[in-house]
Amino acid sequence: MKYCPFTSPQSSSRRQFLGYGAAGMLATVLPGCDADGGQSRTTYSQTIEWGRTEIARALAGDPGNVAAVSIALLKNDSVVWQQAFGRTSVQDNAAATIQTRFNIGSVSKVLAALATMILRDRGLLDLDVPVVRYLPGFTMLSPEYARITTRHLLSHSSGLPGTSMRNAFTFEPIPGYAVNAEAALADQHLKHLPGMLAVYCNDGFTMIERVVAALAKQDYASFIQANVLDPLGMADSGFLTKEPVGGSFALPYSGGRQYPQEFVSPLATGGLTTTPGDMMKLARLFLERGIYQSRHIVSADGIAQMGTDQTRSLIINPAPQWVWGLGWDSVRHPGLAAAGVQAWQKNGATAFFSSDFYVLPDQRLALAVIGNTGDSQRSDTYRAGALAEGVLLRALVEEGSIRTLPPLIAHTAPPVAVSPDLTDVVGVYANYNQPMRVTANQDGSFSLSSWNGSDWQAMNGGVSYSYRSDGWWWSGDAPISYRFEVVSGTDTNGQAYRYRYLMLRGPLFGAGYNETTLPMGQQLLPLAPLNAAWQTRLGKTWTVINESPATVPSTLNGTPYATLNSLPELPGYILVRNSSYDDGSPEYQLLAPLTDDRAGMAVKIPANAGRDLYELHFTVVGDKETLTIGSWVYGASVG
Length: 639
Prior knowledge:
54% of the residues are buried. Strands 17, 18, 19, 20, 21, 22, 23, 24 and 25 form a 9-stranded antiparallel β-sheet that branches. An 8-stranded antiparallel β-sheet has the order 26-27-28-29-30-31-32-33, with no helix packed on it. Helix 2 (108-121) packs across helix 6. It is α+β, with helices and mostly antiparallel strands. 20% of the residues lie in helices and 25% in strands. The longest helix is centred in the middle third of the chain and has 18 residues, at 382-399.
């Protein structure tokens, strides 16, 4: 699963991803193979040396919050670098080995897409048939839910709210997550029409888990074991649906404290435990277009479908560099594309671990890196991408696939231009976790601030942004620039829409060889004042009553809670503070009242900033009011 907060890349780094432990074990370095199948003369020695140096540089970065990392690099059918660093258990001073298993979070989604393609090959599933054909009990409050297809689920374009976080990360196995998530969706609306836009959505893959179980007539973990892991010989991989017996597992380590085994309940979404070596067996399946060691696992067309750009039919897509595949985050990874190389890429994070997985189909290269990174939600996840990208690009240079590394993006601001009128763009912009405010300055520039719970706090050091000749707003030669974009048209229901986004551009991911443009927030306009029913709930706090005490947030941060308030600058909305995410950081969302007892999602933002949105409603149980947010139920409020 991928639960990294969407913050400005210019904000202070929360925790460095690559601060791995000191002990290391080197696997045998195997010879590579040329593209024609012959033995390669390339040993990738320079690439490996660079990778080790970068990891060594990071070892001292945060020793109280990191414990282990494991990495593997594949060329054709040979692993040319495999190495583990650090300790699987800090408490026992046990060194990690290449057999040490890590939780890989959202990289598990690649296997969910693969399972779907296997069922498709068997004639049991059509990617473009509504999911309700396979799950007749699935329902939601928006009637358009019946249009959701398997392709929508796999490409983050279904319109499901985001992530059911109840009992997601735990210290003991808790069954029933997918069933509970589906049940919670029955009391929620869609956040956008299916296929209208694509925004990262974990629950889409949880529904894939339900589809696979229904069509295969067996539980999801057993299906993956029998149809993927066993045929590929991935003996160090599996889903932790019960306490493990035997094997080496990296244990969570954060804040100088070791924790018990982490269990990830959303299996298809983020529950696989594995090693980079095993992931290279999966990579070979992709490189061989569905065949592994002469055994047919999935069709070549299924592999091709997964690697096909799924964004072409989207109605709203202001971030063209973000090219979703089926299960893949990107099938044209921008950093590798800067070198003229196609790469399929997926990353992931759990409460304590982070991972990255790349397959380069034309160059027949693959890479997996997995790390225990303390509290991954406070990690700088871009550093993981920088390491992976750096290793792959250097391997491509060393083997002669590219002549040299692509140039780093220059950040020289173009000349100042006449500033457009800011009257229409000032105001509050919302996303899934951080309301922002755009303020016009007298000199024609603007400034950004974010809501910290009690006041507006200047963003990015309080700098101002001036309009430049390239149509973007810059602060000197800083690498990040902004602009405002309006998208409008008619949706598939025939309704007109018009949204204004605050767009951000910069080297947001990887090692700085490319720029990515993403919508950061959507402008919200004031609504009618909140009525008396909502006014009486403001300032009160509700505590979760249906979360297991064995979950990570409950163990680390106490009982999760939610508080309702409002923003004076934006009348008519309900500001929800939710502490229930795994890192304990409160998230602030702006919701619009739907009725006297229900409030719903207020933004439609592609890519990442519109993920994990809330819908809440109140019910009266006895003489007490109960709050439901997604799959959580909160007890009676207190003043």
